[in-house]
Amino acid sequence: MTVTALPTSGARAKPSSTEIVASGIRRRYAAERRFKMYGIAAVIFGLTFLVILFSSIISKGYTSFLQSAFRLEVFLDPAIIDPSGKREENTLLMADYSALATDALIKALKIDPKVRGDERAAGALLSQNADVELRDYVLRNPGEIGKTVNVWVLAHANADSVMKNAFDREIPEARRKLSDKQLAWIDRAAAEGLLKLRFNTGLFTYGASSQPETAGVGVALIGSFFMMMTVLLLAVPLGVMAAVYLEEFAPRNRLTDLIEVNINNLAAVPSIVFGILGLAIFINLFGLPRSASLVGGLVLALMTLPTVIIATRAAIGAVPPSIREAALGVGASKMQAVTHHVLPLAFPGILTGTIIGIAKALGETAPLLMIGMVAFVVEVPKTPLEPATALPVQIYMWATAAERGFVERTSGATIILLAFLAMMNIIAVILRRRFERRW
Predict the structure, then answer these.
(1) CA distance 213 to 129
(2) b/e string for 353-375 if b means 16 or more Cβ within 10 A?
(3) Which of 130, 188, 367, 379 has the largest count of CB atoms under 10 Å?
(4) What pTM value is reported for the model?
(5) Residue 267 CB: number of other CB atoms within 10 A?
(6) Which domains are seen in the chain, by residue range?
(7) Which residues pair with 150 in a beta bridge?
């Protein structure tokens, strides 16, 4: 007799294989949805901080592209400018142009010069560069001496901050850099059209200055141009040739393996190390001048070289072997196969890696600080051997300045640097798509 056990009321039925598979699929789909959510959250998180960064830079820096200036009717008094009437350059250079500008401002604002302190207070509204602007005008137009001319003269940084609504009028007068009377003069000049915000061309033409209104990135732009040309002329040909040799001609042995490992390691070395190397070799050993664009370009070329080699090798390695085999099969030499077929096909990748490497070098600061490119350079350099600075170094120097006007100059120069970097990356993308071939 067979006895069959009856299932108890508390026992659960064993799930079928179909239910197990369905449960596993649901878990995988749920994990996939969570992974997508994590990815979207990471993208949103990054974009949020990117928007905050750019908003902060642009909000603080867009005003640097505008500069306040007074429109004055200046009498070029020959008794002050050229008493002898000989139009000698030394005499014209030594004239008291500040007095002429101050007198013109006093007349324009209808200020009584007999009131004690008003003349000095009015002159304080003008930039210290006002005399230079008038002097340059006279040197360009000596025939205007003895006439009344209309000129635009830069306002002082304090007056400029008032025009840009960056001056706190609620601070007690004793603690402000401008008195109530000076603020009233500024308001009157703005209302009468004597004081206006104009496009700040000086931001792109002026050099270093202790006054924010006369500080610009002109020297830094020329210095950066010289350095990038040095990088382009040295790092690109050497990097491409080294990559071609290692990828196409070098035998596979321990020596080439060691070279490849060191190239990859050099690409990850901190940039300050290259600055120390440049200081020891180019300045201390070879005696090249400090603060010269040539030295900066040599240091940045050393730093960019590993990036160019790695990018070029990757581009050459992406060319199908059948291209080489076909060229060799029709009688081409190894060199002909590389120069006539492999390199032209690898050109988009080489170009992209080169532009990205140069863009990275353009934004470097640490190695340039080590070779002394923090000099106070006023005159625009004419050769790579003359003292200069670079755009990121100029941003660093302005960021450490105490004057409030340099805050907007720092952000404005950062906008210019970011614009150059964005432009170079866009060019890299366009050229890559233009010359890219799909296999």
Answers:
(1) 9
(2) bbbbbbbbbbbbbbbbbbbbbbb
(3) 130
(4) 0.85
(5) 17
(6) 66-200 (no CATH), 218-435 (1.10.3720.10)
(7) 73
